[in-house]
Amino acid sequence: MKISLSFMLFLLLGAVSPSESTDYQKSFPQDIYAALREMTASLVQLKADMRFLQTTGTVMIFRQVAFSASLLAGGESVVGPSSSKITLIYKHVITNIGNAYNSTTGMFTAPVRGVYHFEWTVAANGDNSHASGAGLVKNSEHVFLAYEYQATGFMSSSKAVALLLEVGDVVFVRMFVNSVVFDNGNHHTTFSGHLLFPM
Ligand SMILES: *[C@@H]1O[C@H](CO)[C@@H](O)[C@H](O)[C@H]1NC(C)=O
């Protein structure tokens, strides 16, 4: 950064045309103070610009991670009920920047250490005996549950969480025991996530 600052100064000084230099020489010493004030102002602006460049440059090298998917690649179907916790594998991927979500396994794998935000929604038609529920899992640990029970009518539940993940940590959504989830072309049952910031 020191090298480029010197280089920018060199450019700045070089930008003063020969005729201007001559003018300064002619009017020396009265106007030299005005010229110095101008240069000081330019230098302050230059420093501010470089700070901005440094900041945006850092943003640009951040990993970009964001995905969004719904359950079914096509058609309409109910998953469950099951006495075991079924991992939901979201097949209709609409965004997968950074390829951290795998639609073969349903797993999101953190590519960098950082804070990530996830949202998931489950939906189903109330059948008078089953809830619609799914929990977010980090590695093997249950984090939060989205859950709803209604005897009749359409039900839907959503949840979100911010999680600090290490590189290689795995996050996925697992159905609650004996519950059901439904999806069709309206894409009710979804899973999304993105990197908020690296740490
Ligand atoms: C997704 O997971 C499957 C099964 O583990 C693996 O074969 C495949 O290479 C993975 N895809 C990507 C893009 O990592």
Automatic annotation (TrEMBL):
Which locations, inside or outside the cell, does it occupy?
Secreted
- Signal sequence extent: 1-21
SMART domains xref list: C1Q
UniProt keyword Nucleotide-binding present? no
Its taxonomic placement starts with: Eukaryota, Metazoa, Chordata, Craniata, Vertebrata
| Alphabetic keyword roster | Secreted, Signal
Q: What is this protein called?
A: Cerebellin 10
Among its keywords, does the record have Transferase?
Answer: no
List the InterPro entries hit by this protein, alphabetically: C1q_dom, Cerebellin_Synaptic_Org, Tumour_necrosis_fac-like_dom
* A Pfam family recorded for this sequence: C1q
Question: Any idea where the C1q domain is?
Answer: 63-199
GO terms for cellular component: extracellular region
Top-rank lineage group of the source organism: Eukaryota
